[in-house]
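dumping this here before i forget
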Amino acid sequence: MKRHYAVAGGRDEHVPQVPRHRAAFLLNHVYAHRGLHGAGGQQGGPVENSMPAFRAALDAGYGIECDVHLSADGVAYVIHDAELRRLTGKVGKVSAMTSADLSRRELRQDSGPIPRLSELLALVAGRVPVLIEIKIEPGQQVGPLCSAVAWDLRNYAGGEGAAFAPAVIMSFHPDAVRWFRSHAPELVRGLVITEEGRKGYWHGALRALAMDWARPDFIAYDVRNLSGSFVCRQQRKGRPVLSWTVREPAQWQAVIEQGAAPIFERDAGGNLPAEALAYLEEKRAALHG
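structure:
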């Protein structure tokens, strides 16, 4: 029986040392959360996880974060929700629809059809890193979706030349991260963690179990809890820390001070704060100068 461990705060974990070189490149970039889109798709621009949003992120030189679900016929599709209504206006569940059905569903804001993961990877072509979040629904086995993602990455992860930026996987679900450890160990993998609403010894113990089970190369940590001792311990072990979802000036400042890589969105007005613009310019100069 698969067990979905709650990932939360508490005691000091015994986590094996992580090779510094394997995931360190992630800290050289910033990541547009679900692509570069208007806040909630309400600014007249493309909606999240759409090809126009990903093109906008690429044009700005940002890394890309995306979410994937599995179609009924085993194809990885880039969409956050298990249900289609919020992003398409139509009723339907990703897992109940074939790839032919999903490819005909248009996203709101004239953002085009729901993209396949393979289409996103072809667009990016190693120009920036891609963070692929594996979305596992309650009761869903991790293997089919993980296998579909690994299939799409089979000719992508190695890349060509030193300038090629790999795609990596991450998930809240420790079993999904462990699947890649067992079946595709060449891929960099991360565990997504939040502490919101989760306190006490038992939550900390479950987090320790999740970390030991998944053995992630990096963690993607809720920005609301970024200053905790757990993050500092992971950084001392050489494990890169990414932080989500960064929107407000104080959150940008927290990420900068912690030495984490931001997974960010524009604010409710579709803008980035001054702290973000300065930090992004610094990162851009470091990458290209």
